[in-house]
Amino acid sequence: GQNIDQPTEMTATEGAIVQINCTYQTSGFNGLFWYQQHAGEAPTFLSYNVLDGLEEKGRFSSFLSRSKGYSYLLLKELQMKDSASYLCAVMDSNYQLIWGAGTKLIIKP
Amino acid sequence: GAVVSQHPSRVICKSGTSVKIECRSLDFQATTMFWYRQFPKKSLMLMATSNEGSKATYEQGVEKDKFLINHASLTLSTLTVTSAHPEDSSFYICSVKAGSVQETQYFGPGTRLLVL
């Protein structure tokens, strides 16, 4: 079966760095997405990785290793507004998105 | 990214009534639209995929006669929850994708449905 694993919840301090991991087992791979979802709101797109390596976009970076079925989202200089759930999603061989359950990130002052 | 709107943002209805939710792509033509449902603290669950001018493809376990989807144009898709029951109370979110199958999905703001 298809499976996306990510931690349920993480806590970090304002100004610090946090890494949210995602491992996946899917039938085929056509890219991995990270979305941010604030409570009560819809997800917003953060990043897309289809090749191995690190993609940097401001304070957020996303890494992919296809051979390991592994990705992480790195958030630097954490701000209180970064408190949200972070969803990992993989596009399988049928170009369907397989969603992880999300990681709730709690930022403390 | 794409700008997507949903209407209404919140709706409360009585059990047995039908509710229509609209999803509009405001700044580009969306060949494919998706409807998701999300229960509290749960992951997104894809309900159906709709392509403009054709019938929607429903995920396993989703009743197509209960959740009617119409994708009449490249900028509008509607989801009608027929004969709603309290267990249908959820957060319904649409997303759009332009042309290519590898395109990123962009989400509408969601509609919170409460069935009394």
What does this structure look like?
The complex is a heterodimer of chains A (109) and B (116). Chain A is an all-beta fold. In chain A, 0% of the residues lie in helices and 57% in strands. In chain A, strands 2, 4, 5, 9, 10 and 11 form a six-stranded mixed sheet that branches. Chain A has a five-stranded antiparallel sheet with strand order 1-3-8-7-6, with no helix packed on it. The model of chain A has no long low-confidence stretch (mean pLDDT 95). Helices cover 0% and strands 51% of the residues of chain B. Chain B is mainly β and 116 residues long. In chain B, strands 2, 4, 5, 6, 9, 10 and 11 form a seven-stranded mixed sheet that branches. In chain B, strands 1-3-8-7 form a four-stranded antiparallel sheet, with no helix packed on it. In chain B, β5 (45-51) and β6 form a beta hairpin. The termini of chain B are far apart. Chain B has strands spanning 4-7, 10-13, 19-25, 32-38, 45-51, 57-58, 67-73, 76-81, 90-97, 106-107, 111-115. Chain B is built from no helices and eleven strands. Chains A and B meet through β5 of A and β10 of B.
Defining key terms:
heterodimer; A: 109 residues; mainly beta; 6-stranded mixed sheet; 5-stranded antiparallel sheet; 11 strands; 0% helix; 57% strand; B: 116 residues; 7-stranded mixed sheet; 4-stranded antiparallel sheet; 51% strand
